[in-house]
Task: inverse folding
């Protein structure tokens, strides 16, 4: 069964931008589009009863869907208005999706995203990729020459799902993949005789990192021979290196390993930093 592209909408400008992006992505990939709205009844002076509020919600969702179907004739769209907690509803929707697309507020091209608690909790709990789209994102932002920038780290299997997502996105757009591997000098005590031998065989730290990136990319180059790849290996923190090339990106793809703390879920410093400061949509892909 083909998993749909799922957009979470709430009537805000940000969620409408996310819906528009999700519709374009569904057309590119040839998949259905699913539109989900989570709501909870709260008595208000202008709509004190449940039926009135639900009608308003459904009318708002229908209006948003009509706008995208008017731009994409033939796109298969289903809508669901679900009563319940925002985070729980969206996480459940993500489980059945190819990708969940959400809106995120922005402070302008420099500051980037303002990631609210709902977005952070959904990203941390979702088992499928989640894409954050800022208000103001337009089809013209997805132009030829703009890349799919993806962060790679660790061994090939560590970033397999992240690279899969990036290559599939690039293939659908005819875009270049810029694969970024950042590295830093490890503390001396981290070296072992085995690791020193690997570094010596590679000719040093940077050549070793380049070989590691090439090994991670090899199976995806074979699977997507038509996708042009640029390898980018740079010394520095992963978040800073990724953001340094964000100006070339129409989509940024990063991995995440969520961890639980006493104050809630955390998604990792790299994903968190990129989500707050990248100007383009950002896809956060759970590691296998």
Result:
């Amino acid at each position: 069964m083909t998993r749909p592209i799922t957009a979470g909408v709430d009537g805000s400008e940000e969620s409408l931008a996310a819906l528009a992006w999700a519709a374009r992505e569904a057309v590119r990939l040839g998949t259905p589009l699913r539109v989900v709205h989570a709501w909870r009844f709260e008595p208000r002076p202008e709509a004190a009863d449940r039926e009135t509020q639900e009608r308003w919600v459904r009318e708002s969702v229908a209006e948003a869907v009509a706008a995208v179907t008017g731009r994409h004739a033939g796109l298969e769209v289903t809508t669901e208005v679900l009563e319940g907690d925002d985070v729980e509803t969206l996480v459940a929707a993500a489980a059945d999706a190819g990708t969940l697309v959400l809106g995120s507020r922005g402070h302008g091209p420099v500051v980037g995203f303002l990631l609210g608690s709902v977005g952070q909790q959904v990203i941390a709990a979702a088992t499928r990729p989640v894409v954050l789209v800022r208000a103001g994102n337009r089809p013209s932002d997805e132009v030829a020459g703009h890349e799919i920038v993806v962060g790679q780290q660790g061994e090939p299997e560590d970033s397999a799902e992240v690279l899969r997502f990036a290559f599939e996105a690039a293939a659908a757009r005819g875009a270049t993949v810029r694969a970024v591997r950042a590295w830093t000098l490890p503390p001396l005590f981290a070296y072992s005789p085995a690791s020193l031998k690997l570094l010596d065989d590679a000719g040093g730290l940077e050549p070793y990192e380049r070989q590691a990136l090439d090994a991670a990319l090899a199976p995806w180059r074979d699977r997507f021979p038509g996708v042009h790849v640029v390898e980018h290996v740079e010394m520095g923190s992963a978040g800073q290196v990724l953001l340094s090339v964000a100006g070339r990106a129409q989509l940024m793809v990063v991995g995440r390993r969520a961890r639980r703390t006493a104050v809630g879920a955390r998604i990792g410093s790299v994903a968190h930093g990129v989500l707050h400061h990248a100007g383009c949509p950002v896809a956060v892909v759970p590691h296998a």
